[in-house]
């Protein structure tokens, strides 16, 4: 989709309509194009910039296999967000944000497990319960499913949170910022764009406006998931080829041994040939110098695409460099990037980076699960 087409679609959806002038937040001034009849008009060029930046970051997160939590409890956004999140298999909250859903995730997981156990009990015909008990359990299950159903498959805190109307969902935003989770948000003229890492200046009240923004970001996530699937297929094919080569090498081993025995039994070659052989061997054994690529820090809990780039710009480009860095040094890099990055806590990053450097991905996942309350 070209920029002109996107601009026209945003215009038709009413994404440019802001709030009344008396309700505006002065920090939204750079995103306001003009004022008409007492209503602020959002600059759609800024909206497109925010959309493209957010879409690129979300695509990268989806490609790395991490989860993005969709949050929208406003009436006009519920159905749109729920449908989009289910389409990309991402967790969502559209009914009510429970206090501590992120900061007290371990307790929330217990509630989810309780809901799952009730569901199994109702489906299991071997358990004998009265009609009244079944009715009570069904009501409890429906009540819990309404609030927790969207995060049933979320076994750990997400890598990022997307919020429709950051002023309305202030508790969710506060919890995400406290844990250092990357935040994306639709920001209207009555909100502070500096509260989120990726701000999308737009009308967060109109259904059409919410729909076009959410669908654009969902399309980016789908692209990231497809690229991840292709990479996994390619990796599986390479592993299969490597196993086939290894098997073929084992089968050829007896032939090679027989050939070497025959060589030992043969007469000694001329001295000139013996002198030339070591030189050829030296050439063959010379190791090729490989240039190491920059490591992907988004695989470390607490690091999103933006902080990943900040670390690289700060000179920390590999897992090894981060593993031997002190948390104070990482804090200095974050502080140099801006005040809003000071709240991120890099205490466990070196430990996680060391496991990543050694290729101990299972141990890394276990450590991250412990940090986030477990499954």
Written overview of the protein:
This protein has about 375 residues and is α/β, with parallel strands linked by helices. The longest helix is centred in the middle third of the chain and has 59 residues, at about 205-265. Among the domains are: about 5-100 and about 155-225, Rossmann fold (3-Layer(aba) Sandwich); about 300-370, no CATH class. About 55% of the residues lie in helices and about 10% in strands. A 5-stranded parallel beta sheet has the order 5-4-6-7-8, with helices on both faces. Strands 1-3-2 form a 3-stranded antiparallel beta sheet. The protein is globular, with a radius of gyration of 28 Å. Helix 2 packs parallel to helix 7. Strand 2 (about 30-35) and strand 3 form a beta hairpin. It starts with a helix and ends with a helix.
What is the mean pLDDT? 84
Estimate the global geometry from the Cα principal axes: globular
According to CATH, the homologous superfamily of the domain at 3-102 and 157-227 is Glucose-6-phosphate isomerase like protein, domain 1
The CATH architecture assignment of the domain at 3-102 and 157-227 turns out to be: 3-Layer(aba) Sandwich
* CATH first level of the domain at 3-102 and 157-227: Alpha Beta
Q: What is the spatial order of strands in the main beta sheet?
A: 5-4-6-7-8
Class from secondary-structure proportions? alpha/beta
Oligomer: single chain
Q: Quote the beta fraction.
A: 5-15%
Using DSSP, what is the number of strands? 8
Here the CATH topology of the domain at 3-102 and 157-227 equals Rossmann fold
Helices and strands, in order, run as: HEEEHEHEHHEHEEHHHHHHH
The residue fraction in helices comes out at: 40-55%
Q: If you compute it from the alpha carbons, what radius of gyration comes out, rounded to the nearest whole angstrom?
A: 28 Å
Largest sheet, if any? 5 strands, parallel
